[in-house]
Amino acid sequence: MRVKVARRLTNVLSRDLFQFVHDAATETETLLSKRWTAFQAVEPINPTSLSHAPDFVADAHIPLNNSYKYLREALDTASHGSSPSRFIPSHDESRLCNVYDFTQFTNGRLEKAIAVDHRIAIADFELSVEGHLESWAAAYRKNDDASEVIASCIQQYYTGAKVFMRPTPKIIR
């Protein structure tokens, strides 16, 4: 997890965002280390001290003798409550799903997609970056416009995603 976060932080433009992620990761690691130390300090259960040999089949069987009536009523209610309807997605051609060519995000197209459906557009862009940015960058590394394409993507993404940024939550110990 540390390596994944560190790799993503190398591309962060904002010092404040970098510090936010760094502080959250440090607090999380400290908390998890304390919990792991406490867990290791607990005396382990010795399997030979069990009073009987485990019977996994019998131990996994859970009779629901008193649940039949409840389950039958729940299933009957669910089947009579409504008829299934055909799913018709609401997105249109503005959706930028599974994009391989990052020039498709330029000229405000990412911004327009974000305006149509904020969360879906941000998720689509992040999945495209995760799955295809490396190969696109390798293919376009000698293209003079590549840096402008990436700058446009970063600017549009930051503008659209900053509404999701929240202050550091307090960790309850």
Low-confidence stretches: none
Instruction: Estimate percent helicity.
Output: 55-70%
The total count of helices amounts to 7
The protein's oligomeric status is single chain
Largest sheet: none
Please describe what this structure looks like.
The protein is built from 7 helices and no strands. By secondary structure, the chain is mostly helical. α5 runs antiparallel to α6, α5 packs parallel to α7 and α6 packs antiparallel against α7.
Q: Secondary-structure map with pairings?
A:
Blueprint: H1 2-9, H2 15-41, H3 56-60, H4 68-81, H5 109-116, H6 118-140, H7 146-161
Please sum up the structure shown.
The protein is mainly alpha-helical and 173 residues long. The chain contains seven helices and no strands.
Main features:
mainly alpha, single chain, 173 residues, 0% strand
